[in-house]
Amino acid sequence: MIDFRYHLVSIVAVFLALAIGIVLGAAELQGPTYNILNHTTAKLQNEYDQTRGQLATAQAQASAGESYAQAVEPAVVRDLLTGQRLLIITEPGAQSSVVSGISAAAADAGATVTGQIALQPEFFDTSSTTQDSLNQTNLDVARSAGISLANSGSYQQQAVQVIASEILTTSSKSGPDQPTGSQLAISPSGGADQSSSAQTILSAYASSGFLNTTGQPATQASLVVVVTPQSVPSDGSADPLDQVLPPLVAELAATSSATVVAGSSAGSGPGSPIAVLRSNNVANQVSTVDDADLASGQSVVIQALAILLAGGKAGSYGLAGNGANAVAPTPAPTPSASASPTPTPTSSSKKAKK
To answer: CA 160, CA 147: separation in Å to the nearest integer?
Structure first.
C-alpha cells in the first residue's frame, strides 16, 4: 500500500539525484564553461572600451567644431544684415542660450535687435475662459487701433495679426544714418506715434498675461526670428504649439521682409513645432533652422534671413534626422551691394577709443 512515507521518500530521492547530477555536471563542464564565459566577457569589455573611445573622440570633435564655428561666425555673417532691424519672438520653453546666440550673430551681421516678445503659456491655452479673454483683448486693441480683424482663424492668429501690423514692416530701412539703440523708439518720419500705438497694444496683451516684452519690440522691425521650445512633451502628447505655429508664422511672414523659425537639436524632432511646420504649406514662406543651439546653426539663421531678404527661397536647414534638406544654404549668401560695410577697428583706433 502506498502511503505518505512512500511519497516522501520518493521526493527526497528525486532531489538527491538532481543534486548529485548538478555537482557531477558542474565538475565535468567547469573548465569549458569557464573558458567560454571568460572569453565572452573579455570580448564585451573590449567592445565597450572601443565604444567609449569612439564616443570620447566624437565629443572632442564636436567640441572642436563648435569652437571653430564660434570663432568664424563673425566673418561668416559679416554685413549680411547691415542696417536691418530684427525682432525675436519666443514660445514657452524656448532656450535662452539660443536667443542670446542669435542676437549676438545678428549684431555681427550688422543688424539691430529691437527687442523680444515672449509668448506665455496662456497665449496657447485653449480653455474657454482664456480664449474669451484673448478674444476680448483682440477686440479692444483692434478697435482702439482702427484695425479690422480677420474673420477666419484662431484668436491667437488674430492677436498676431494685430501685433504684427503695428511692429513689423516689409520695407527695409537700412543706411548709415538709420538710428539705432534707444534712438529707434522715435524715427524722424513721425515714428513716435507708431511706436506709442504699438507699445499700447503690447501692454494690453502683457497685462492680460499673454506675453512679456524686453527691449523695444514696439519699434518697427523688418526681420523676425521665432524660437521654438527646447524640448517636446515627454509623454508623447500633442504639443499645442504644433497647430498654432503655422498660422502664426504665416502672419509674421506676410508683414515682414523675412521670417525664420529656429529651434534646438533636441526640440526639433518628430512631434515638434518645427516638424509640423515643415510638413505645412507655410514652409514655402519661412525658413527653418533646427540646430540653433549650436554656433553653426545661429550663423545659418542669419544666412537664412539674408537669403529671404534678397528674394530667395525658403529652406529647411539643420540636421537630416530632424527633416532638414540641407545643413546650410548653398551657396552661402554674400552682403548686398547696397549694404554699408562695417569697418573693422584697427589697433590704433581701438586705443583711441580707450
So the answer is: 12
User: 317 - beta bridge partners?
Assistant: 289, 326
Task: For residue 325, give the nearest of 294, 298, 305, 304 by alpha carbon.
Answer: 304
Pairing of strands 112-119, 316-317: unpaired
Residue 93 has pLDDT above 70, yes or no: yes
Beta-strand relationship, 112-119 and 211-215: antiparallel
90 pairs with which residues across the strands?
Answer: 118, 227
The DSSP code for 293 is T
pLDDT digits (tens, 9 = 90+) for 313-336: 999 999 878 889 999 998 888 886
| Nearest residue to 248 (alpha-carbon basis) of 129, 155, 315 | 155
Q: Report the alpha-carbon angle 318-323-328, nearest 5.
A: 25
Q: Which three cell numbers stand for residue 328?
A: 546650410
pLDDT in tens, 19-62: 766 665 655 555 666 677 677 777 777 777 777 777 777 666 66
- The answer to whether the bond into 331 is cis (omega within 30° of 0) is yes
